[in-house]
Specification:
heterodimer, A: mainly alpha, globular, B: alpha+beta, Rossmann fold, 2 domains, 6-stranded mixed beta sheet, 5-stranded antiparallel beta sheet, ATP binding (chain B)
C-alpha cells in the first residue's frame, strides 16, 4: 500500500484543501440563497447575515412569480438547453465515430477543421448569425438558439469524443460486424455505452454556458415568448433601480435545474458496466 | 470439399504491401494454423478471410463460393478474438444468441443451440451473468460459445490464448482440440506460439513478411523444413545454427541441429563452453558456446552440469540440416 496515502496527516491536508475549495466555490451560491429570503433593507445592511424573523421575507419570490411569465422563461431555458445538449451529443458522437473509425481521404483535415471551432469564439460571428437567422426567418424562435448552441458545442464534443472512441476496442466492433450488426447498431449499442463517461463530460461542459448565456437570447430571441431565464431575470436589473430581491430569487430558481441536470449526468461518469468487455 | 480457397491474395495498406500472393486451401474439417513472428501478416490474412479487411487483389472462396464482396456476417464464418470482445452490456446468454437473433432464427432454435454450446463449454451456471462477472478463462469460453452457436462453415481464432496464464492456456488448448474433434468443423487458428501450432494443427502455414514460407503437417515441417527460417521457427528450443566449417573444414554451408538431437559424447565434434543450465526435471537444457556460436542442447533426464564447465557434444549425421547462404536447403 502506498505510504503517502495512508499517512493521516496527508489525508487531513488533502481533505482540508478540498473542503476549503468547496467552501470558496459554494460561498457565492450560499450568499445568493440566504439573501433571496431577506428584505431589501436587510440585504444591504448585513449581506452575510442569515435571515431571521425580522429580516425574513419572500417578497423577491413573490415579485418573480407575479411579474413576467417566469415559468415560460424557465421552460424556454430548459427546452433550449436540453435540445442543444441532445443535438451536440448526437451529432458530436456521430462525427467523432466517423473520424475515429473510418479511414477516408481528408479525414485528418476534416477533424482539424471541426476542431477549429474550439479556438474561434462563436460570438465573433454574431452579426452574420443574426443576418442568417433574419433571412431564414428563425429570429425570435427557440430554434435560433438551439442551432447556435449546437454549433458552439460541437467542436469540443467532436474533439473529446473522437479521442475516447479511438480507445474503444476494434475487436468489439469487429465482433459486432461478424454477428451481423449494422454500423448504426454498432455505434448506438456498442460504442456509445462505452464512451458514456466522455458523453457526460461533454454534456456538463456544454450545459452551464448554454443555461447561463445572455448574449444570444438577447440578440436572437428577445421576445416575451422566447425569453430564457437569464434574459428574463434582466427585467429586474435596471439602469437606475435594481430589484435585488427579485434578481436573487430568480437566480436561486435558476440554479435548481442545472443542479438536477448535473446530478443526472455526473452519475453517468461512474463506469462499471464498461469493464469486462475486453481483456 | 474445400472449406476455403485463397488464390493470389494481396493486401496493401497504402504503400505498405502486407500480404503477398497468398494461395492456400483449407479442406473440410481441417484444423489449419497460421504461425509466424509478429508483423508477418497472419492476423491481417485472417481479417481478410473474415471480411473485416478487403483483399487488394486475389480471390477468396468459402465452400466454393466467391466471397470477396460478401459482408462478414454473410460469409458463414465465426471469429474468436484475442481480447474476447464480449458485449459488456449483454448477459452471457444474449452475447451468444445475438448473431442468431440478428439472422432472424426462430426462438426455439436459438435456445437449443445456446443450450448445446453452454453444455459443451461448461457455461451453464453462468448464462445469466455479465462478462464483467466472469474470469478470463470463462470469458474466452463465452467467446468460443458465441462462435459455436452460429454453426459456421469456418471458425476463425485470432490468438485466442494469448491473454490467458500458462496453466489455463494449456487447458483451453486441449478444450479447443476437443471441440475440433466434436464439431469436426474447419478451423483457422492464428498464433505466434509454435507450441500451439504444433499441438493443434492438422496443417501449419508458416508466414513471414506477408509471404507463405511453407505449408504442411506439423511433422512434415519439423522433419523437412523448406528453409532455414521454418527450421528455426518450429521446435522448442529452436534449432541450433552454426557454420558447417566448425565440423568439416572448408564447408561454407550453415549447419542446423535440433537441441534434442545433441548429446553428450566424449569424442563429439563440438567443444562447448557451458554458459547456463536449465534444470527442468525431465529435461536439462544446456546453453553453451561453441567458439562464438551459441548452441542449446536438450538432454533427456537430469545431468549435473554447471555453468563454466567444458563439454563435448555429438550428433548423428542423419539428424543434421544444411542451408546455403540464402537459407535454402543445400544437400
Amino acid at each position: 500500500m502506498n505510504k503517502a496515502r495512508t499517512n493521516p496527516l496527508n489525508t487531513f491536508a488533502m481533505h482540508g484543501a478540498l473542503i476549503f475549495y468547496t467552501l470558496i466555490a459554494l460561498f457565492p451560491v450560499f450568499v445568493i440563497l440566504i439573501n433571496s429570503f431577506k428584505t431589501r433593507k436587510a440585504i444591504f445592511k448585513e449581506p452575510l447575515a442569515l435571515p431571521d424573523t425580522e429580516s425574513f421575507s419572500l417578497i423577491g419570490y413573490q415579485t418573480v412569480l407575479k411579474q413576467g411569465d417566469f415559468f415560460l422563461y424557465f421552460q424556454n431555458s430548459m427546452i433550449v438547453t436540453v435540445a442543444s445538449l441532445f443535438l451536440i451529443l448526437l451529432f458530436g458522437a456521430m462525427a467523432a465515430y466517423a473520424l475515429s473509425e473510418y479511414r477516408f481521404r481528408g479525414s485528418k483535415l476534416l477533424g482539424l477543421y471541426l476542431a477549429l471551432g474550439i479556438m474561434i469564439p462563436i460570438r465573433i460571428g454574431t452579426v452574420a448569425i443574426l443576418d442568417l437567422m433574419v433571412s431564414t426567418g428563425l429570429v425570435n424562435t427557440l430554434w435560433a438558439l438551439i442551432l447556435v448552441y449546437t454549433a458552439q458545442g460541437l467542436p469540443l464534443a467532436v474533439f473529446i469524443l473522437s479521442e475516447f472512441m479511438r480507445q474503444v476496442s476494434d475487436d468489439l466492433k469487429n465482433a459486432g460486424r461478424i454477428d451481423g450488426l449494422s454500423e448504426y447498431t454498432i455505434f448506438f449499442r456498442l460504442v456509445l455505452p462505452l464512451v458514456r463517461p466522455a458523453m457526460a463530460t461533454v454534456a456538463v461542459f456544454n450545459m452551464i454556458p448554454i443555461w447561463n448565456d445572455l448574449w444570444f437570447p438577447l440578440i436572437l430571441a428577445p421576445t416575451e415568448a422566447t425569453k430564457t431565464l437569464t434574459l428574463g431575470s434582466q427585467v429586474f436589473i435596471g439602469q437606475f433601480v435594481t430589484d435585488w430581491n427579485a434578481v436573487l430569487s430568480a437566480l436561486s430558481f435558476a440554479i435548481l435545474p442545472v443542479l438536477a441536470l448535473y446530478v443526472i449526468f455526473s452519475r453517468q461518469l461512474i463506469r462499471g458496466i464498461t469493464s469486462g468487455a475486453v481483456k | 470439399m474445400t472449406a476455403l480457397t485463397l488464390t493470389n491474395v494481396n493486401k496493401s495498406f497504402g504503400a505498405v504491401h502486407v500480404l503477398k500472393d497468398i494461395s492456400l486451401t483449407v479442406e473440410d474439417g481441417e484444423f489449419v494454423v497460421f504461425v509466424g513472428p509478429s508483423g508477418c501478416g497472419k492476423s491481417t490474412l485472417l481479417r481478410v478471410i473474415a471480411g473485416l479487411e478487403d483483399a487488394t487483389s486475389g480471390e477468396i472462396r468459402i465452400a466454393g463460393e466467391q466471397v470477396n464482396l460478401t459482408p462478414p456476417s454473410k460469409r458463414g464464418i465465426a471469429m474468436v478474438f484475442q481480447s474476447y470482445a464480449l458485449y459488456p452490456h449483454l448477459s452471457v446468454r444474449k452475447n451468444m444468441s445475438l448473431a442468431l437473433r440478428q439472422e432472424g432464427q426462430p426462438k426455439d432454435v436459438i435456445e437449443q443451440r445456446v443450450a448445446n454450446a453452454a453444455r459443451m463449454l461448461n457455461l451453464d451456471p453462468y448464462l445469466d451473468r455479465y462478462p464483467s462477472e466472469l474470469s478470463g478463462g470463462q470469458r474466452q469460453r463465452v467467446a468460443i460459445g458465441r462462435a459455436i452457436v452460429r454453426e459456421p462453415k469456418i471458425f476463425l481464432f485470432d490468438e485466442p490464448l494469448s491473454n490467458l496464464d500458462a496453466a489455463l492456456r494449456m487447458n483451453t488448448r486441449i478444450e479447443i482440440a476437443n471441440l475440433h474433434r466434436q464439431l469436426s468443423a474447419s478451423m483457422i487458428y492464428v498464433t505466434h506460439d509454435q507450441t500451439e501450432a504444433m499441438t493443434l494443427a492438422d496443417k501449419i502455414v508458416v508466414l513471414r513478411d506477408g509471404r507463405v514460407e511453407q505449408i504442411g503437417s506439423p511433422m512434415e515441417l519439423y522433419n523437412n523444413p523448406a528453409n532455414q527460417f521454418v527450421a528455426g521457427f518450429l521446435g522448442s528450443p529452436s534449432m541450433n545454427f552454426f557454420p558447417a566449417g566448425l565440423v568439416n573444414e572448408g564447408d561454407d554451408r550453415t549447419m542446423g541441429v535440433r537441441p534434442e538431437d545433441l548429446f553428450l559424447s566424449d569424442d563429439g565434434p563440438l567443444l562447448a563452453q557451458v554458459i547456463h543450465v536449465e534444470h527442468l526435471g525431465g529435461d536439462t537444457n544446456v546453453i553453451a558456446n561453441v567458439q562464438s556460436h551459441q548452441v542449446t542442447a536438450r538432454l533427456f533426464g537430469q545431468h549435473s552440469i554447471e555453468a563454466g564447465q567444458s563439454l563435448r557434444l555429438g550428433f548423428s549425421a542423419q539428424k543434421t540440416f544444411h542451408f546455403d547462404a540464402d537459407g535454402l536447403p543445400a544437400a
